[in-house]
Structure formats: C-alpha cells, structure tokens
Automatic annotation (TrEMBL):
<dbReference type="GO" id="GO:0033615">
    <property type="term" value="P:mitochondrial proton-transporting ATP synthase complex assembly"/>
</dbReference>
<keyword id="KW-0732">Signal</keyword>
<dbReference type="InterPro" id="IPR009724">
    <property type="entry name" value="TMEM70"/>
</dbReference>
<dbReference type="InterPro" id="IPR045325">
    <property type="entry name" value="TMEM70/TMEM186/TMEM223"/>
</dbReference>
<comment type="similarity">
    <text>Belongs to the TMEM70 family.</text>
</comment>
<dbReference type="GO" id="GO:0031966">
    <property type="term" value="C:mitochondrial membrane"/>
</dbReference>
<keyword id="KW-0472">Membrane</keyword>
<feature type="transmembrane region" description="Helical">
    <location>
        <begin position="34"/>
        <end position="56"/>
    </location>
</feature>
<dbReference type="Pfam" id="PF06979">
    <property type="entry name" value="TMEM70"/>
</dbReference>
<keyword id="KW-1133">Transmembrane helix</keyword>
<protein>
    <recommendedName>
        <fullName>Transmembrane protein 70 homolog, mitochondrial</fullName>
    </recommendedName>
</protein>
<keyword id="KW-0812">Transmembrane</keyword>
<feature type="signal peptide">
    <location>
        <begin position="1"/>
        <end position="18"/>
    </location>
</feature>
Length: 158
C-alpha cells in the first residue's frame, strides 16, 4: 500500500514539473485555449489521483500488533503524505457494524478500519477483535417482548 501511494505521489510531482512544458507546447499548438485545456487536464489528474487513492485506502490497516501486557492492539494506517498513523484499542472498543460500509471491517471508537483476515498469523486475534468469541445475538427482542406481555397482563388486571 505504501509503495502504491508513493508511486502516486511521485507521478503527481512529475505532473507538476511537466506543467510548464505542457503550457509551452499548448501555446505552440493551439494558443491560449489549448494551453489552458492541457494544464487543466494535467492538473486534474495531478491532484485528484492521490486524493482519491487516499480516500479509498485510508482505512486499510497495514500493520496490527498485540501488546499482551496491556491487552491492547495497535493498528497502523498510512496518511496522505505517507506518515504512519497508529491507533490503540482494546477488543471492548470495537463495534462491528451490522451492514459494513465500503472497505470497513469494524469501527474503533467510531473510526472505520479495514483488515484482511488472511493476513493474521494467529486467527484467534481476528476472532477476538470481531467478537466472534461472544455469544450470538439473533436480535429477536425476546426480553423486550416478555416485558410487553407482562405490562399487558398488569393492565388487564387493573
């Protein structure tokens, strides 16, 4: 992931360096209109490509470490300018959305993260983070329904 972003940023820098050449050649070929068109198209791809790539990959966890002493995980993601962003969390901080968004495995303190389950050396950590080791909640609302039945019985008696 880091290499893809590095390649994108380097091609964007090359695009910035090519702007004066595009302007000069555009002026020779078709005048001011052609120069503006070439610089607009080149500038669009120079700036938009790294931003779109970052929007897609900002949730991707490149490293995940477990600290057994503190029972914390440290997830590492990459910023737009290739800096490592570390997020510390415990399994209790994780919420798994019922309908996950695009490139979202789970939320850590309302921050979406995407992990590839195949990259875990120990699958037990993935199971623990995702909450698969907890009892299944089928969301049948049985407790809520039994409370409503009890209230109806009380209302009928009075």
């Amino acid at each position: 992931m880091r290499l893809v972003k590095l390649f994108s940023l380097s091609t964007s820098l090359a695009g910035l360096a090519a702007q004066p050449i595009l302007m000069e050649q555009g002026m020779k070929i078709g005048g001011t209109g052609m120069a503006v068109f070439l610089c607009s198209v080149g500038g669009f791809f120079t700036f938009v490509t790294p931003i779109l790539l970052h929007l897609v990959t900002k949730k991707y966890v490149t490293e995940l470490h477990y600290n057994q002493a503190t029972d914390e995980y440290i997830a590492t993601t990459i910023s737009l300018i290739l800096l490592k962003i570390k997020t510390k969390f415990r399994p209790s901080d994780v919420t798994v959305p019922e309908v996950p968004g695009m490139f979202t495995s789970f939320l850590v303190k309302k921050r979406p993260l995407f992990v590839d389950p195949a990259l875990f050396d120990d699958p037990e950590h993935y199971v623990r983070i995702m909450g698969y080791d907890k009892p299944i909640d089928f969301k049948l609302n049985l407790k809520h329904e039994s409370e409503q039945i009890q209230r109806k019985k009380i209302n009928v008696l009075f």
